[in-house]
Amino acid sequence: MLLLISDALKNENNKIADKITAPVNRAFGNFHKRAVRTY
Question: How confident is the model over 2-12, as a mean pLDDT?
Fold first, then answer.
């Protein structure tokens, strides 16, 4: 039972982390592409 609860919490945390990291990764990827192009 506890394992199920911790798994559910882990999934929720992953979803929240994805929401935070996805835009950051996208922004960093765009910045990286532009930086590479300028060199």
Answer: 85
